[in-house]
Amino acid sequence: MSYNYGMLDIRFIRENPELVAEKSKQKGYEVDIAKLLQLDKRRREMLSDIETVRAQRNELAEQAKGQPPSPEAVEKGKHLKNHLTDCEARLKSVEEELSKLLKAVPNMPANDVPVGTSEAENVATKEWGEKTQFDFEPKTHWQIAETRGLIDKERAAKVAGSRFAYIKGGLVKMQFAIMQFVAETLTNEETVKKIIQDAELDVVSKPFVPVLPPAIVNSKAYEVTSRLDAKETTYKLADDELWLNASAEHSLCNMYMNEILPAEMLPIRYIGYSTSFRREAGTYGKDTEGIIRMHQFDKLEMEIFSVPESGLGEHLLLIAVQEYLMQQLNLPYRVLNKCTADIGKANARGVDIEAWLPGDKRYLETHTADYMTDYQARDLQTRTKNGGGKTVLVHTNDATAFAMGRTMVAIIENYQTAEGKIQIPQVLRTYMHGQNII
Fold first, then answer.
1. Among 202-206, 270-274, 284-288, which stretch is predicted with the lowest mean pLDDT?
2. Residue 18 lies in a domain
3. Predicted local confidence at residue 61, as pLDDT
4. Alpha carbon of 174 to those of 5, 165, 168, 374: distances in Å?
5. Same structural domain for residues 52 and 140?
6. 296-306 and 151-152: which strand pairing?
7. Residue 9 resides in a domain
8. pLDDT at 230
9. Residue span of the structural domain in which 66 resides
């Protein structure tokens, strides 16, 4: 069973059927737009028929007021009631089939998203920092951390299985330091204002609110996020309709489902911290060394709810925040504009940041920024009022602040010493009582 929901505006599909089919195909989705529109037409016709039958029943009831109904009226009333029941049953069947087709249609990619068939066609738009050079042969993060007892996967495998690890000693202290650094940065309005000014963005300087979200999500609340992928990603609890959170935004984006938010509340910016769980299905043989593709990891994730007009600006703000955080750690990175096949079903736009790993001699994805427009909010029914008082769907954005494991991988490899120790980035030392090396 597929749970990967979300929804495009049916009016947009009616007005742009060929475009929707073409853009869906660019994202790797074959959708039957002709059948969808046929069902949509049938549904509207059936709704009209039902309204007619209801009007006839109301008229019959009005005529019978104050007098006993005639046998003919009674018979007509029974006929109309049975006809209405039959019409409503047929409507329900059509709506279920239509809903299934609607939820198979992905969000439309933004105009600047490169058309591509795989992640190999993502486009590098920026590089920052010089690739770290050493006067010795650099080691990989696992060669350093496992040798020094900072990571223990062998004992974790006895307890939990493969792709789990004990993180120990100085790396734990570093993780807590990263958490404090991010929280202090994003809750400081002056820092947020500086990031906005440096990126030349037209958004307000409202700070982020830190949140510790639930680690489990019920099926209904997960389905409407368009993020639940039962086959590839997410763990389900055996005896309950509950799922382990695969990322903090999966229990942040649905916080306001079925609510109308006052416009003055927006934008709402959250920075959430959660332990996350992922199956990593289909990745076996990839990144088996170290702590890159783990079934359990900790993550700081940003989530923003905004009015439609500022949705893209909030997306660009999240990318600017990501770059600021990476630059504060002085980690060399590149920015990728993800292609149509790689941005995901719900996204209109997606950007990755990849850190350079000198020991592994490659780039590693450390950040993703996803802009969903109103696609996610349509199923969530998270709305607000526009300037004219009309109820509209909010726009949603989510983005990585730091995935702890991958961030520490990048720090270990870029800050290693010839003796196999790890220098602590300057910005984190304040949160580690001045300690400068692990």
1. 284-288
2. no
3. 74
4. 37, 16, 10, 37
5. no
6. unpaired
7. no
8. 61
9. 32-102
List of residues 6+ apart from 97 with CB closer than 8 A = 39
CB 315 within 8 A of CB 397: yes
Three-state DSSP class for residue 305: strand
pLDDT for residue 66 = 66
- Same domain membership, residue 283 and residue 152: yes
Q: Within this chain, do residues 94 and 201 fall inside the same structural domain, yes or no? A: no
Location of structure tokens 């974790």 = 156
Query: In sequence order, which ranges of 268-333 are alpha helices (DSSP H)?
Result: 311-328
State which of 72, 102, 132 marks the end of a domain: 102
Instruction: Select the more confidently predicted residue: 169 or 224.
Output: 169
Q: Which of 36-45, 50-59, 283-292, 391-400 has the lowest mean pLDDT?
A: 283-292
In 133-287, alpha helices (H): 141-147, 153-160, 170-186, 189-198, 219-223
Distance between CA atoms of 424 and 411, rounded to whole angstroms?
A: 8
Terminal-to-terminal C-alpha distance of the chain: 47
Q: Is residue 78 domain-shared with residue 148, that is, in the same domain?
A: no
CA distance 40 to 33: 10
Q: Which residue type does 334 have?
A: R
Q: Does residue 4 carry a pLDDT above 60? A: no
The residue with tokens 């000198």 is 358
pLDDT tens for each residue of 301-351: 999 999 999 999 999 999 999 999 999 999 999 999 999 999 999 999 999
Q: Is residue 110 part of a domain?
A: no
List all residues 6 or more positions away from 438 whose beta carbon is below 8 Å from its beta carbon.
150, 169, 170, 171, 174, 421, 422, 424
Is the same domain home to 78 and 173?
A: no
Residues 189 and 63 in one domain: no
107 contact partners, CB below 8 Å, separation of at least 6: 6, 8, 345, 346, 347, 348, 372, 373, 375
- Per-residue confidence at 2, pLDDT binned at 50, 70, 90? very low
What would the mean pLDDT of 404-411 be, rounded to a whole number? 96
- Final residue before a domain boundary, out of 71, 102, 133: 102
**Residue 205, domain CATH:** 3.30.930.10
- Give yes or no for a contact between 195 and 321, defined as CB atoms under 8 angstroms apart: yes
Give the per-residue pLDDT at 73. 72
> What total number of domains does the chain contain?
2
Q: What is the mean pLDDT of residues 9-30?
A: 94
Q: Is residue 25 included in any domain, yes or no?
A: no
DSSP per-residue codes, 202-221: -S--PPPEEE---SEEEHHH
Q: Tokens for 40?
A: 């949509």
Q: Quote helix, strand, coil % in the chain, to nearest 5.
A: 40, 20, 40
Please indicate, yes or no, whether residues 198 and 83 belong to a single structural domain of this protein.
no
If asked whether residues 310 and 201 sit together in one domain, one would say: yes
